[in-house]
Design brief:
Blueprint: E1 2-6, H1 12-24, E2 32-36, H2 37-43, H3 65-74, H4 82-93, H5 107-129, E3 132-137, E4 140-146, H6 154-164, E5 170-173, E6 177-181, E7 186-190, H7 202-214, H8 222-228, H9 243-248, H10 250-259, H11 285-293, E8 318-322, H12 327-332, H13 339-351, E9 358-362, E10 369-372, E11 375-378, H14 383-400, E12 404-408, H15 410-417, H16 423-426, E13 431-434, E14 437-442, H17 445-450, H18 453-479
Parallel strand pairs: 1-2, 4-5, 8-9, 8-12, 12-14
Antiparallel strand pairs: 3-4, 5-6, 6-7, 10-11, 13-14
GO molecular function: 4 iron, 4 sulfur cluster binding; deaminated base DNA N-glycosylase activity; metal ion binding
Pfam family, one: UDG
InterPro entries: DNA_repair_put (IPR023875), DUF4130 (IPR025404), UDG_Type-4/5 (IPR051536), Ura-DNA_glyco_family4 (IPR005273), Uracil-DNA_glycosylase-like (IPR005122), Uracil-DNA_glycosylase-like_sf (IPR036895)
C-alpha cells in the first residue's frame, strides 16, 4: 500500500504531481491511500510504502482537457474520497478508456459530476452571500468577511472578488483558509474563527434598508427563496433577520401595491433641460460623445438607458459601422459587447484583425426595443430615426477620417452608401465613397445568430471571407 500525503487537498498541481508519479510507477488505484491536510496528520502520513518521487519519474500519457477541468472542481469538494476517485478515473483513462468521461452512467463519472455540480453551486453561493464589514486600518478602511462554505471553494472564487472589488482592501475568512487583497496582490492565509471577523457595522443598516425596499411581495415563493438562499447561510447575512417579518407582511403589502396608482419609472440618465443641437462641425471625438449623450432628435432616447457612442482610436485606419446598440450595449454603454459582438470578435480573431485597431460605432445611437416580460427584443429603427442619427455618424466619419469603412448589415450599409444600396447584391465588394475612402458591406453578426445551427455553420466562411478583404486592404495600405 502506497500512502500519499497532500499538504493541500484542494491543490490541483500537488495532486497532479503525485498522480503522475503513481502512474509512471504503474501503481494501481487500489494500492494507494490518499491523505490530505489534518487528515494525513491524524492517520499518520508516514504509514505505508509512500508514493514515488514526482521528480524522478518520466512523462505519462496525456489526458483530455475535460478531465483537468473536472478535477479542479472535484478537488474542492469536502468528501475525503475525492482524491481516490479522481486517481481511479485517471488510471482508467490512461489504460484504454479514453472516452470514459462521456459515460454518464459510470459510477465514478457520476460521482465526480455530482461533486463538481456541488462545488459549482457553492462557488455561486459564495459570490452571492459574502458580506463585507468595514474596520479601520492603518492606511484606511479594510473590509472583512466571514463565510462558512460547505466545500473548499475560496481559492477558486477569490479572483472574482479581486476583480469585483479591485479598488478596496479586503479579507475573506473561512474555517479552512483565508485570502487577503491589498489592491494589487492576492495573499493566501490559514483558516480562521468566527471571532476573528468583525461584528456589525454602519453599512449593514444601509444594506438592510436596501434589501427591504427591493423585496417584492407579489413574487414571494418561500420554497424557491430557501433553495436559492439556504438557511445555513442566514446566520452570516445581515438581511436574514428581516426575512420572517417580510414574509409575514407579504400578503398585505401585495394588496397595497395592487391598489396603488401606477408610477412613472425614473430614468437612469434624465433628460437635459434643453434639446441638443446639431453636431459641431469641428472638435474632438470626446466633445462629440458629450453631444450625442444629450441627443433628443428622435423619441428613441426616452426608453433607452443611454446613448452608445463609438469607441476605438481617433485615427483608426478602419471604421466599423453596425445598425444600433443591443440590450447589452445599452446597459454597458459600449458598442458590440453582446452576443453579436462576441461573434464579431471571433471572426476578427480568425482573420487576424486586432479589434483595438478599429473604430467601432453604430448608425443609430440608442437601442430601439419591444418589451417582452423581462426581455427587450430588438426592433429595427424607422427611416426617420435613422435620418435623425445620420449627422452623428457623419461627424464621426469626419473626425476619424478612416481609409476603410466596414458596414455590418443593411441599415449600416444604407447609412454609409445611400438608401438605394442593396446589401446582398454588392456584399463583399469595395465601394468608393470619395476622397480615397472605400466601404465594404457584409451581413450583421446578429443575422448569423438568428440562423439555425446548420445554416450558420454554412454561412460562417463567407462572413469570415468578407472580413479578410478588410484585413488585406489594411495590410496593403500599411505597406504602401
Amino acid at each position: 500500500m502506497h500512502a500519499v500525503f497532500l499538504a493541500d487537498g484542494a491543490d490541483l498541481a500537488e495532486w497532479r504531481a503525485q498522480a503522475r508519479a503513481l502512474l509512471a510507477a504503474a501503481v494501481p488505484p487500489d494500492a494507494v491511500q490518499w491523505q490530505a491536510g489534518a487528515q494525513g496528520d491524524l492517520l499518520g502520513a508516514g504509514a505505508g510504502e509512500g508514493a514515488p518521487s514526482p521528480s524522478s519519474t518520466g512523462a505519462v500519457a496525456r489526458v483530455p482537457r475535460d478531465f483537468v477541468a473536472l478535477a479542479t472542481l472535484v478537488l474542492a469538494h469536502s468528501d475525503p474520497r475525492r482524491h481516490a476517485v479522481l486517481y481511479r478515473l485517471l488510471w482508467r483513462i490512461t489504460h484504454g478508456e479514453r472516452a470514459l468521461l462521456r459515460i454518464a452512467t459510470d459510477d465514478d463519472v457520476a460521482w465526480a459530476e455530482r461533486a463538481a455540480r456541488a462545488v459549482r453551486r457553492e462557488k455561486h453561493k459564495m459570490k452571492a452571500f459574502v458580506r463585507f464589514r468595514e474596520v479601520a486600518g492603518a492606511h484606511g478602511p479594510v473590509f472583512i468577511a466571514w463565510f462558512e462554505p460547505e466545500h473548499d471553494v475560496l481559492p477558486q472564487v477569490a479572483p472574482f472578488f479581486s476583480r469585483r472589488f479591485a479598488g478596496m482592501r479586503w479579507s475573506i475568512l473561512t474555517p479552512l483558509r483565508s485570502v487577503h487583497w491589498d489592491g494589487s496582490v492576492l495573499v493566501n492565509g490559514p483558516g480562521a474563527q468566527r471571532s476573528d471577523a468583525p461584528g456589525a457595522d454602519e453599512l449593514e443598516n444601509l444594506w438592510r434598508t436596501y434589501y427591504a425596499n427591493i423585496f417584492n411581495p407579489a413574487r414571494l415563493k418561500v420554497g424557491a427563496m430557501v433553495r436559492e438562499m439556504p438557511v445555513r447561510y442566514w446566520k452570516n447575512l445581515p438581511e436574514a433577520e428581516l426575512i420572517p417579518g417580510l414574509i409575514r407582511r407579504a400578503g398585505a403589502r401585495m394588496y397595497a401595491m395592487v391598489g396603488a396608482a401606477p408610477t412613472r419609472p425614473r430614468k437612469m440618465f434624465p433628460a437635459p433641460s434643453v434639446e441638443a443641437a446639431a453636431p459641431a462641425s469641428v472638435g474632438t471625438l470626446e466633445a462629440l460623445r458629450d453631444e450625442v449623450l444629450g441627443c433628443r432628435a428622435c423619441p428613441l432616447w426616452e426608453p433607452a438607458t443611454q446613448a452608445v457612442f463609438g469607441e476605438g482610436p481617433a485615427d483608426a485606419r478602419a471604421m466599423v459601422v453596425g445598425e444600433q446598440p443591443g440590450d447589452q450595449e445599452d446597459l454597458h454603454g459600449r458598442p458590440f459587447v453582446g452576443p453579436a459582438g462576441q461573434l464579431f470578435n471571433r471572426a476578427l480573431a480568425e482573420v487576424g484583425i486586432d479589434r483595438g485597431t478599429l473604430y467601432i460605432t453604430n448608425a443609430v445611437k440608442h437601442f430601439k426595443f419591444t418589451p417582452r416580460g423581462k426581455r427587450r427584443l430588438h426592433e429595427r429603427p424607422s427611416a426617420q430615426e435613422q435620418a435623425a442619427c445620420r449627422p452623428w455618424l457623419e461627424a464621426e466619419l469626419a473626425r476619424v477620417r478612416p481609409r476603410f469603412v466596414l458596414c455590418l448589415g443593411a441599415t449600416a450599409a444604407r447609412a454609409v452608401l445611400g438608401p438605394g444600396f442593396r446589401l446582398m447584391e454588392h456584399r463583399g465588394r469595395w465601394q468608393p465613397m470619395g476622397e480615397g475612402v472605400q466601404a465594404l458591406a457584409t451581413v450583421h453578426p446578429s443575422w448569423l445568430l438568428r440562423l439555425p445551427a446548420g445554416e450558420r455553420e454554412a454561412a460562417w466562411p463567407a462572413f469570415v471571407a468578407d472580413l479578410a478583404h478588410l484585413r488585406d486592404a489594411m495590410e496593403q495600405a500599411r505597406s504602401a
